[in-house]
Structures are given as C-alpha cells and as structure tokens.
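Assess this one:
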Amino acid sequence: MLSGHFAMGLALKARYREVPLLVLLFSVQLLDWIWLVLAWRGVEHFRLFFAANGTLQLDLYDVRYSHALFWSLFYAAGVFIVFVRAEGQRHWAVPLSLGVLSHWLLDAMSYSDLPFANFGPEIRFGLGLSSLSPFWVFGLEGSIVLLCWWIYYRSRRATASAAWPLWLGLAILVLMLFSNQFLMSISP
C-alpha cells in the first residue's frame, strides 16, 4: 500500500494547503519509518515468502510497536502535541496527526492481523484484503491512488503555474504501484 499512503498525503495537502507536502508525505509514512528502525534493531520482525499462489509476500508478523492500533494512536497524539506546541506550526498538528492515522487505516484494509498493542489481550484488527487475488489488491490500491490524486489535482490546478508537476506526481504514484505489483508477483 506504499503508493496508497503517499496518495493519502496528497489528499491531505488538498485540504490543508498551509502544510508543506514533504512534511505530509513523511507523516503518512511515519509508522513505516518506525517499523524500519525497529526491524533493523531486531525489536520487530518480518519475513519474505512465496505464497501458495506463487507470489512473493511480505509477512509483518511482529509489528507490535510500529503498527499496533494503540501505538499508532499514541504516535498520532505525540505528533499532535509536538506541533500544537510549536510556534508557527500549530496549524500543522491536525493534518499531520491525520496522516499518521491514515497509515494505520489503510494497513487495516490490507492486513488482517494488526495487533492492538504489545500488552493486554491478543486482539487483532484488519480486513485482510491483501489475501485476495493480486488483481483485486492492485485495483483497490489503484483506486485509492487515483481518487486521492484527483482530489489533490482539483485543489491545485487553478493555482498551479503549470500542470506537468501534478501529472508527474501521478506518474510516480502509478510507477510505484506497478513496481510493487511486479515485486509481489515474482515467483520462484
């Protein structure tokens, strides 16, 4: 859902024009940056494997700190508190917090086993749409990308001096979408 996360950053930019796009794009990927550091440190774990249908899959079987609902809400609240207290960036607090939360929501659509927290009862969340055929997963993420990009495009086209950067953004998102689809269709 990588391109879907970035597309959500574009949709947020359409609504919150005062926040720099790069900062919004970082906020929608914050959970993955946390996951990357924790996986590198050996705190969280993942594996790559070939599924029964022969496609390469990424199994995030241990994401109890980076992608748990409790910690995602905690990170979003932390981002909100940091920016609401920052002089000159108070108006960034809500959109950046929404960016962090949007990551968890999109992942909950894709995966079926996102934990509640690293403590308490073993509760898992998610719709598990990534277990459907790759065609449906591609269609879902592609729809999210196109919808979010369209929202961004409509908000910027009147003020943009040239339309080509907007179309370039769509091309990059689509390239990311196809690259991910290609990587997940590699078979042994």
